[in-house]
Amino acid sequence: MKRAPTAWFFTDFGTEGPYLALMESALLAYCPGARVVNLMADAPAFAPQPAARLFAALLPWLPEDALVVGVVDPGVGGRRRPLLLEVDGRRFIGPDNGLFAGPINGGREVRAWEIETAGFRLSASFHGRDLFAPAAGRLLAGEQLGVKETAVEGLEGHGWPAELAEVIYIDHYGNAMTGLDAPSEAAPHFRVGGHLVERAGTFSEVPEGTPFWYANSLGLVEIAVNRGRADRLLGLEVGTPVIRA
7, 67, 109, 168: which could join 179 in a potential S-S bond, CB 3.0 to 4.6 Å? Predict the structure, then answer.
């Protein structure tokens, strides 16, 4: 069955307020039959590098022809460039601030263009609604964008390391996802927030209230507490360093 034209949103907006709905409305104005999948609305706020690591871990679960609109954009209204990327069949629209470092550095065929903003009505602070979502709607509708090709080597995030030795996301349960790939060996330890945590296969393998780390469903090291909140018990937040002990 043929899929309807679809865009995936990856943002740090949260779900409260009008922001996601306004972005979706701006996209649908150009492609009324499109679908929007909110891949993530609580990416690390104002933090392109942790958000980029998290996005890279989610990317394998998207279709090979996915169109992603990424808006973690603390430099909105400033000098950062609006980008269209094509990487191995997928397309990405968002700011040139490193958010798409994963596909930029991990792709086989990577091309990049700066989106020309003439014809878009831009506010000072909401380019997700005013530029990125409408640009995606135009592409889904089969229209062409005004773009200027730019060198991949000059993009922010080019050359960033694949792993990030810090907490990159705190989920609803207080589990702390890190930017480290889970090691394959049996029992390494990690020091995080001044605490030493041991490996377990999953929550039920440790007593209630016990902190541990495990290989999460994205293949990353995640710090957790069985039936508790690792962020509160261990004093963790996005950016807390994670050290292999």
Answer: 168
Region(s) of the chain under CATH 2.40.30.90: 164-244
Both tokens of 35, joined, read: 């679908």
pLDDT per residue as tens digits for the range 89-108? 999 999 999 999 999 999 99
Domain 6-154 belongs to what topology?
Rossmann fold (3.40.50)
Tokens of 131: 């530029």
Place domain 164-244 in its CATH homologous superfamily. Bacterial fluorinating enzyme like (2.40.30.90)
For 207, what's the count of Cα atoms within 13 Å in the CB-facing half-sphere?
A: 1
Rounded to whole angstroms, the Cα distance separating 183 from 180 reads 8
List, in sequence order, every residue forming a beta bridge with 40; answer none if it has no partner.
Answer: 10
Q: What are phi and psi of 189, to 5 degrees?
A: -115, 155
Mean pLDDT of 107-125: 97
The answer to whether 44 and 51 have CB atoms below 8 angstroms apart is yes
Q: Which residue has the tokens 């306004």?
A: 22
Residues of the chain with CATH 3.40.50.10790: 6-154
Measure Cα distances from 192 to 86, 178, 211 in Å.
37, 10, 11
The total number of residues written for the chain in this structure: 245
- Residues 53, 55, 60, 64, CA torsion sign: negative
Q: Using a cut of 0.90, tell me whether the model's pTM lies above it.
A: yes
Query: Quick one: pLDDT at residue 186?
Result: 67
Structure tokens at 162: 């694949």
